Amino acid sequence: MLIRLLKGRLVTAAILLSATLSASLAFAENNSQRPTIGLVLGGGGAKGAAHVGVLKALEEMHIPVDYIAGTSMGAYVGGLYATGMSADEIGAMMESIDWNEGYQDRVYRGDRRIRDKEHEDRYNLSTNLGFDFKSLKTPQGVVQGQNMIRILRDSTGNLPSFASFDQMVVPYRAVATDIERLIPVVIGDGQLTEAMLASMAVPGALPPVELDGHYLVDGGSVNNLPVDVAKALGADIVIAVDISTDYYPAEELGSYLQVMNQLVNFMVRQSTEKQIGNMDKNDFLLTPDVGDMETTEFDRVPEALQKGYEIAMANRAALEKVSLTSGEYQEYVEEKQKRRRMMLYGDTLDVDRIVINNDTSFSDEVLKARLDLETGKMDSENLEKSVQNLYALDRFETVRYHLEQVGKENVLVVDVAEKSWGPNFVDFRFALEDNFESDTNFSAGVSINTTGLSDYGAELRSTFELGTDKKAQAELYLPFSAEQTFFAEILGGFEVRERDAYFREEEPVLGNDTFAVGVRYSEVIGDISVGWQPKLWGEFKLGYRHLYGEEKVASSESYRSDYERAMPYLSFTLDTLDNRVFPNYGAYIDASLGYAKDSLKSQGERSDSEAAVLNVEGIYAQNWGKHTLYGKAKYGTINARVGNVLIEPHELGGFLNLSGIPRDSLWANNIAYSALVYRYRLLDNDFGLFKSPVYLGTSFEYGGVWNNPDFSLKDIPFYTAGSIFAGVDSPLGPIIVAYGRTENDLDSFYFIVGSQF
């Protein structure tokens, strides 16, 4: 077994002196009067709450703990106890933590940049694939542990870096597995949170943690019950708590997952039984009755805690042979509390210097700007927000920090590592809307994001889509400063759209006397803009858009029109929604004002026009528990028309877009539309790595489109519509089944997969 040498990771001189003297005085006195006791806590995920129950019973029996060794969840519980926390404090901590968040690194949507939100809304199949023009690459874990390390920091409080874990309130060791050589590694110094994470890093779910040249993962497969480690520390008597899972009987091996789990159980049980063999007659082995509990069932933490308490109390008669008197135990507890107070920095930090270890293509100035930290008094909560603000760029594998004492300075060290499977990334899109009759719309696409093109974070995003609409587009993003507040975007692309539009004379209307026209648009588009993003949730753009297009009518092979639009514009976007498809709270505004110069060449004739173009769209959502109500509205107008060709028209039709009629079947220069949607969350479906809530809902909708700029309000063909629906927000995107009905007895069923944006 490898034991990591205790290296020169400095702690404050005061802590070193006080901790060392306290340890010498308190424990030396105890050692002369009684045998030392080592607590060994095994791994087992959520079942590890049983360790807390054992600790609670030991405290009630006045049994001191002189050494702690733990693996996986045992390393977490043991690490907290080694900092001087009580069993009750640890139990309350474990019950308050949403452990599933530790396996979800995605930053809240409201904290993302506008351009990233727009991209993810459309390309929602994020596979985390990367490439470097040589090969495709994937990350080493499903998640990278960004939220898990935050949970560990929240649990431990602000601690120094330890030259030795002997300097903790109770001497401590964590056990992990060297994944390269498949041998146990005992972690005895450094950052407590890093030691915990290394011991808890489930292979595949979390990446290996690199410490002193070792790539470390969960220690359960090689030493799940580190009795030998506690004895090596000096324990005369070991109290070991085994929560490992026993083998499944043949009748329970009904799926490939259970068969794979059986292999994992075999490795864990083998290492556990080997360590049990190291125990002697004076040691205690406690096995809480948590065999029916899965390692992921954190909702059963109180139950596991109680099981641990019960097994310890069942062995009370034997355990109390190593108890202290009430007076002795009170002195022991007071000494622990004193050492804990000296060891913790507290919630407010005094930082003399900030060091950023930058292992990315970004300049140091970009990282500093996103962190926005200053020396002096620093609040822990604000520090965590700063770290999340940087991580929200979604270009980093991890952003971590720790405190070091360098001479007389308190130094905050921030380690930033770029995604190792980059620098280029691939996302996918799939969307389908079918009305079970004659109308099917689908879209499949791929997006390639080439990053690291400048120190400030320039990127080239290329997208390709096939389906009802076809598109090829490239967009270059060029930030001008480290803050990325000012930027430029250059876009070029080609797009083909096919539509069946319903008309009476020249107006888009519904009814028995309307006729459908099949139209195909082919357009080449160029757009250049400069932007200002004062906040992550909002941005302004000043730009120029130019497009060349061709319109063909399916019913007339000879009819063809060529058109052109040149338009400077000003736009504003605000987006604080938590979810674009199933919003629970937040707001969305997209407003633009342009001045279009249009020209048309049709049947040998040319015509020109100029007009102002105004578009405004908004969403506001609010929820109350399982109930959500949100409203959406859209208004757009252009005060001119060039012949019979509609250039970049507004489209209406489809689910929640006048439900009941075919998708995008009404289109014109002008639009006015609103909807009120109620949604009830029927099931949460929290699976840890992802959530797939199930919703039921209904909508009321009202709106229409028109071409004639001279129409008064009473002339506009408005329609009333409504829908009922059931939907799942799945990892593959939204899946919705709905029924919609519009006046004039037009109705439709819908089956929808993916985002329709």
Provide tags for this entry.
about 750 residues, alpha+beta, Cytosolic phospholipase A2 catalytic domain, Ubiquitin-like (UB roll), Porin, 3 domains, 16-stranded antiparallel beta barrel, 9-stranded mixed sheet, 15 helices, 34 strands, hydrolase
Description:
The strands form five sheets. The chain has a 16-stranded antiparallel barrel. Strands 1, 2, 3, 6, 7, 8, 9, 10 and 11 form a nine-stranded mixed beta sheet that branches. A three-stranded mixed beta sheet has the order 13-16-15, covered by helices on one side. With 757 residues, it is α+β, with helices and mostly antiparallel strands. Residues 1-31 have low confidence and may be disordered. It has three domains: 2-105 and 145-156 and 163-343, Cytosolic phospholipase A2 catalytic domain (3-Layer(aba) Sandwich); 348-418, membrane protein fhac (Ubiquitin-like (UB roll)), CATH 3.10.20.310; 429-457 and 505-753, membrane protein fhac: a member of the omp85/tpsb transporter family (Porin). Helix 1 (13-33) runs antiparallel to helix 13. Residues 39-231 form the PNPLA domain. Residues 349-419 form the POTRA domain. The active site is at residues 72, 218.
